[in-house]
Amino acid sequence: MKGKKILITGASSGIGRESALYLSSQGGEVILVGRNEDRLRETASAIGKNACFFPCDLRKLGEIEKIFEFCASREILLDGMVHSAGLANPTPVRAISPENVEEIMRVNFQAFVELGKQFYKRKYSGEGSCIIGISSLAAVRPSKGQVAYAPSKAALNSAMEVMAQEFLKRKIRVNTIMPSYVATPMVSQDAGFGMNQGIDKMPLGVIDPKQIAYLIEFLLSDKAAHITGAAIPVTSGV
């Protein structure tokens, strides 16, 4: 990872923050993106010189290119990108609103497409770089309350497969990771409904976010040079 420049969305908490901390500890240079500027600043401060940050609300799709313009202004040519930002908001079908669905799809799926579109531009990324989307096991095995969340992650996986084919022209690899329940604020906040169906039945326990960071590191590395178009499950036996 030494010297690799990695853009990470959702970097102020959960998998994104843990990945930023771990990748930087392995010599990577991380560009942190998230809505909460104070928490981004805290994460960047914890990392030190190998981090910079750019606050951005990914619900505003038209603002996304500004992230890449920021990188270019610092002469950062990206080697990788991790889209870890996501919304869950577990809601039963009887209570879901079009606005709920639209917001979740916008962050989990549409933002990934826009990020990928910008990343693919030669002025923003290097040849043979890598894109990783943090999906969910819910994409293929949804639970109650995930009527918007599960389809958004399934759409993310489908977008990844399309990108993986189209981006081969620049030898950019694109994959997603589908974890079951990870010990993040999202899971703990949603403990009352939906997201945690069966969380107490995980034979290998709730997943430490650092385990996802390890897999991200592998996929970003040359050790995964022939892996693209893959949605990789991390089930913990559930």
**How many beta-strand segments?**
7
Roughly how many Å apart are the termini? 31 Å
**N-to-C SSE string, H for helix and E for strand:** EHEHEHEHEHEHHE
Side-by-side strand order of the widest sheet: 3-2-1-4-5-6-7
Description:
- The chain is α/β, with parallel strands linked by helices.
- 38% of the residues lie in helices and 18% in strands.
- The protein contains seven helices and seven strands.
- It has helices spanning 14-25, 37-47, 64-73, 98-119, 149-166, 185-189, 209-220, and strands at residues 5-9, 29-34, 51-55, 78-83, 125-134, 173-179, 231-234.
- It has a seven-stranded parallel sheet, with helices on both faces.
- α2 (37-47) links the parallel β2 and β3 (51-55).
- α1 (14-25) packs across α7 (209-220).
- The longest helix has 22 residues, at 98-119.
- It is globular, with a radius of gyration of 17 Å.
Compact overview of the structure:
The protein is an alpha/beta fold and 238 residues long.
List the helices and strands and how they pair.
Layout: E1 5-9, H1 14-25, E2 29-34, H2 37-47, E3 51-55, H3 64-73, E4 78-83, H4 98-119, E5 125-134, H5 149-166, E6 173-179, H6 185-189, H7 209-220, E7 231-234
Parallel strand pairs: 1-2, 1-4, 2-3, 4-5, 5-6, 6-7
Helix pairs in contact: 1-7, 4-5
Please tag this protein with its features.
single chain; 238 residues; alpha/beta; globular
